[in-house]
Model the fold of this input.
Amino acid sequence: MTDSHSSGRYGPLPQRPGKIIAVHLSYASRADQRGRRPAAPSYFYKPSSSLAGSGAPVQRPVGTELLAFEGEIALVIGSTAHRISAAQAWDHVAWVTAANDVGLYDLRAADKGSNVRSKGRDGYTPLGPALIDARAVDPHALRVRTWLNGRLVQEDTTATLLFGLTQIVADLAQHATLEVGDVILTGTPAGASVAAPGDVVEVEVDAPEAPGSPTTGRLVTPVVEGPGAFDPDLGSLPAVDDAQRADAWGSREAAGLPEPSRAPATPPGLEADLLAALTAAPVAGLSQQLRKRGLQNVTIDGVRPLHPGRKLVGRARTLRFLPHREDLFATHGGGYNAQKRTFDAVGPGEVIVIEARGEAGSGTLGDILALRAHTNGAAGIVTDGGVRDYDAVAEVGIPVYTRGAHPAVLGRRHVPWDTDLTIACGGTAVAPGDIVVGDNDGVIVIPPHLAREVAEAALAQETEDAWIAERVREGHPLDGLFPMDATWRTRYEAETTESETNEAETTESETNEAETTGEGSGA
Done:
């Protein structure tokens, strides 16, 4: 049964609501589009002056770019609710209607999260055109659809909500008394995007499985150009960047933006020449140089590469798992936990290092997390636990070192606990910012202040070892040669000096010849 009201200043509502509360993220499709699933709902307020009815135009100010629409289900409170259970929540909802949670992303940066200026403008909360009696519908079986210029762009049901409608009402009621007429905007599914002057956005909420298939009808919102002229002396001015464009349109692709480069980047504090030296130096040589400097316990033991032959170099970003305990997993294992936060936060050139206590009886990451790290430009992943989806992780291409494959999910052995602290991985301590280097011999951890010194020493040792190997091939015995005694050392230094002199002379000759012929001179 549909309860119709005239669509006036407050849409179909019989009175001005005391408050309008909106949910940031609630649909799984939208959360996945944004690349994060929150552990609990979060909210922001919209003023009642932002309300409008069906047919009322919404203004995009002159000089702005990103007017975004979001089709949503709106709940209208019918009786006072305070400290109620989720089972009681629906009894306090009088009506369901359609909403368009309009936002101007050009103004979002200064108030991101609170959305005061970006979503609080006059006319930015259209409701209607009709109200559905909440008693006539199942809160788990409502549908919301949105059309842009007649093309269906959003469609989802409350069955896919991360946080059900009753949970949202009960959660809000434990913090603030919900009063008669208050409105709750329950979030938008994937497909929300940008509209321009001349476009028309339509939103409909219905209950197709309920008797009579009650519907709100289509909430129609034409987009028009409005006045701009923001006063710079009063507050923030509209501003956009590619991150705002991607959020407003729903994705970089929809916004017409190229995907960010996945090329390895130089992490802060790891200069390009040092990165090159560490990439060239073998882990065995680096280990030898650290041992000479009194550091014996610097190898992450028991891990092997998924991509033999691929070098790993980067700065450590750490993640710690605790042994599984049911009550701790209930509080820390679900939602946006430490594991997901780490893979979301890892930056270009960083290596995620995971403490799993050597417990390989469960996966500590799978292909989705590996893909997230790879997309962020991470240099690699090291875990002294197991990896799920082993073949799929290997196909992602990011260097991964692990104790091996295991099909079980995280909760079998581990609780994701905390991040960005000093951990123990494979028997060695790893601090955030340590330099991690891996090759087929294994993985080593280098204190940043020693990195350049040991890299240069390891490369020098490689040159020396290569010279010794050549002498061995010539048939010389090892005694006195490996390691070199004074006689062999004198010969080595003499031949090395001669080789360097010849190389310098050759380079100078080639330069002079190029200058004589005009090559490379700009002629």
In short: The first strand starts at residue 2 and ends at 4. Residues 261-266, 514-523 have pLDDT under 50 and may be disordered. The two ends are 85 Å apart (CA to CA). The first helix runs from residue 28 to 34.
